[in-house]
Amino acid sequence: MPSPCRLCPRSCGADRTGGKRGFCGETAEIRIAAASLHRGEEPPITGRGGSGTIFFTGCTLGCVFCQNSQISHNGMGRVVDRAEFTAICLALQERGAENINLVTGSHCAPALAAFLRSARNKGLVLPLLWNSSAYESLDAPAHLEDLVDVWLPDLKTLDSALAGHFFRAPDYPEAATRAILRMLDLRGALRWNGPVLVSGVIVRHLVLPGYPESTRAVLQWFANHCRGRALLSLMTQYTPVGEGRDMPCRYVNQDEYDQLLQWLTDLEIDDGFCQELVPDDSWLPDFERINPFSSALSVPIWHWKAGLIGACEK
Question: Residue 204: in which H helix or E strand, if any?
Answer without folding.
Answer: strand 196-206
